[in-house]
Automatic annotation (TrEMBL):
The chain crosses the membrane at residues 12-32, 47-65. This is DUF8151 domain-containing protein. The keyword Membrane applies. It comes from Haloferax profundi. Keywords: Membrane, Transmembrane, Transmembrane helix. InterPro entries: DUF8151. Residues 1-78 form the DUF8151 domain. It holds the Pfam family DUF8151.
Length: 84
């Protein structure tokens, strides 16, 4: 039996949140990495190195959110829609 839109709404909302979260973290991580490189270029090596580590951590969390949460939820929604 094909699920109705109302039954899929929570899954679609969760998919939207994970997708936007992963995209937002990716943009934030890229901005932090750019800031880190500019800081290093201007001579503040210690603060720039710290910002590189923070940017890498944010990018890693974006990757984890995309692969551990978004992708499996996308497969679940696709399989639910294909059952009809």
């Amino acid at each position: 039996m094909r699920p109705s839109f109302a039954e899929l709404l929570p899954d679609l909302f969760e998919l939207l949140v994970f997708g936007l979260g992963s995209a937002g973290l990716s943009v934030a991580g890229a901005y932090i990495e750019r800031f880190a490189l500019l800081t290093i270029e201007h001579g503040d090596l210690g603060f720039g190195a710290w910002a590189v580590v923070m940017g890498a951590a944010v990018l890693y969390f974006a990757y984890l959110l995309g692969t551990d949460k978004f992708h499996p939820k996308l497969r679940d929604v696709q399989s639910a829609l294909a059952q009809g």
